[in-house]
């Protein structure tokens, strides 16, 4: 028997995940929840959902869906709401998937307090928490984790991660902000924001750090110990940055394995540093990964270096298809049906499954959470991993506010059974 999942938050991002969760073969029943009735109706009236959705499973509040008997909730609400909503879901007996980040609010101490409460809630309730960090399931991350498991990097020396999203490029952040604050929950936030403003508390891009830190952290399987960071504050009086101490922040971390990691979060800086706006590079003593290239070298025995046969580095350029982990065939088929609606299932047999959404990460995130809940195992991006990402951003922001002073990064330890 499969599991039941309630989808909370059916806005722009939640809408992209609804068909995948509905069509995962281990999901028997779904529920829908949004405070905006039109969003619930959009899905409830779509015949695609009818085979797993009963009208009584449509809800207009988190309180209501928490009272219903779902195994798990997927929370894709605005970023300032996640942590308390996830705790409420776990307290009501549900496993929970959260959109990134753990929480994004201007006050550093408050964020760390929520990290504490979230870890405590997972321990107290015994429910699983998973953070839906897209970079974790980029093909580059999957490839590098495989190489790390083989020991092919040697000792980790250095890594870089960046999320470069200029306010006016690509998915325009002014529009995103306008859209996220136009709903009932968005308007409530505007009033909460006034209180932070009155206290003079200002955030920054490091309060949304998951896309830049996840790659180095998950590949090296290490956590940050301390950081020095600097920020650039907007100089034009742009209202988009009115509540941010900085529009760009850069940080250098010392990691628990001795490596150094440079992280960049930029919102007022067009262009990208590498091939993508959301990417990372990892360098070791024997293997390195950068821009889809894998570099290796066969070191000579240090006690018997043969000067006539010195090694040369090798470089392999990889395609995403070579880097993705395989998904089970029945899961691929379920997702194919969601992506190519209306097509005859026999026709789908001849179509290859191509992972889509933020570097192909969406189907992997859905599968990881559903599979973890169905098999009662700790998900890959569990609460201990999630708070590591958040703590790095908070500590970097604190350091930047103190003009680069060294700040220690809190850590809540490893997951009890780390996969
Ligand atoms: N690459 C990524 O990982 C990525 C990309 C985009 C968005 N996101 C994350 O996804 C989240 C959602 O973003 P979005 O653009 O879809 O926002 P959105 O404003 O379009 O949607 C959020 C929805 O949540 C609903 N909601 C809020 N509180 C609720 C409650 N108590 N009960 C029921 N419904 C509630 C709102 O009504 C709204 O419809 C954000 O936290 C964002 O950080 C992540």
Strand order of the largest sheet: 14-13-12-11-7-10-9-8-15
Mean pLDDT: 96
Bound small molecules, deduplicated: nicotinamide-adenine-dinucleotide
Main sheet makeup? 9 strands, mixed
Q: What is the total number of structural domains? A: 2
Shape, please?
globular
Q: Estimate what percentage of residues fall within beta strands.
A: 15-25%
Q: N-to-C terminal Cα separation, in Å?
A: 25 Å
- Tell me the CATH architecture of the largest domain: 3-Layer(aba) Sandwich
Count the DSSP helices. 14
Residues in helix, %: 25-40%
**What do we call the CATH homologous superfamily of the largest domain?**
NAD(P)-binding Rossmann-like Domain
Would you state the CATH class of the largest domain?
A: Alpha Beta
Element order: H for helix, E for strand:
EHEHEHEHEHEHEHHHEEEEEEEHHHHHE
CATH topology of the largest domain: Rossmann fold
- Structural class call reads alpha/beta
**Regions with pLDDT < 50 over 5+ consecutive residues?**
none
Gyration radius from CA atoms, angstroms: 22 Å
How many β-strand stretches? 15
């Amino acid at each position: 028997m499969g599991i039941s999942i309630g989808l909370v938050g059916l806005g722009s991002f939640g809408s992209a995940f609804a068909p995948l969760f509905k069509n995962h073969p281990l999901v028997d029943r779904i529920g829908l929840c949004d405070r905006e009735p039109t969003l619930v109706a959009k899905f409830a009236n779509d015949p695609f959902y009818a085979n797993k959705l009963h009208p009584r499973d449509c809800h207009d509040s988190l309180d209501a869906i928490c009272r219903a008997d779902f195994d798990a909730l997927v929370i894709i609400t605005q970023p300032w709401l996640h942590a308390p909503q996830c705790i409420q879901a776990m307290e009501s007996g549900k496993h929970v998937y959260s959109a990134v980040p753990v929480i994004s609010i201007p006050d550093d101490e408050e964020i760390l307090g929520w990290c504490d409460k979230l870890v405590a809630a997972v321990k107290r309730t015994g429910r699983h928490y998973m953070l839906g960090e897209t970079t974790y399931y980029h093909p580059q991350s999957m490839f590098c984790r495989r190489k790390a498991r083989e020991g092919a990097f040697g000792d980790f020396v250095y890594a870089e991660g960046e999320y470069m999203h200029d306010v006016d490029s690509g998915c325009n952040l002014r529009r995103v902000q306008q859209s996220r604050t136009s709903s009932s929950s968005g308007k409530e936030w505007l009033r909460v924001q006034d209180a932070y403003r009155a206290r003079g508390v200002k955030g920054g891009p490091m309060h949304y750090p998951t896309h830049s830190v996840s790659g180095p952290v998950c590949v090296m399987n290490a956590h940050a110990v301390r950081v020095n960071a600097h920020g650039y504050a907007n100089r034009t009086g742009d209202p988009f940055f009115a509540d941010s101490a900085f529009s760009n922040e850069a940080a250098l971390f010392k990691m628990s394995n001795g490596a150094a990691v440079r992280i960049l979060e930029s919102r007022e800086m067009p262009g990208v540093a590498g091939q993508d706006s959301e990417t990372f590079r990892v360098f070791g003593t024997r293997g390195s990964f950068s821009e889809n290239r894998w570099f290796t070298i066969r070191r000579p025995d240090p006690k018997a270096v043969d000067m006539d046969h010195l090694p040369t580095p090798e470089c392999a350029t990889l395609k995403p298809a070579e880097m993705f982990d395989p998904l089970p065939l029945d899961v691929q088929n379920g997702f194919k049906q969601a992506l190519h609606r209306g097509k005859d299932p026999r026709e789908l047999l001849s179509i290859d499954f191509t992972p889509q959404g933020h570097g192909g990460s969406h189907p992997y995130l859905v599968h990881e959470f559903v599979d973890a809940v169905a098999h009662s195992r700790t998900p890959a991006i569990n609460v201990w991993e999630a708070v590591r990402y958040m703590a790095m951003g908070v500590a970097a922001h604190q350091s930047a506010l103190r003009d680069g002073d060294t700040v220690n990064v809190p850590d809540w330890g490893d997951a009890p059974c780390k996969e």
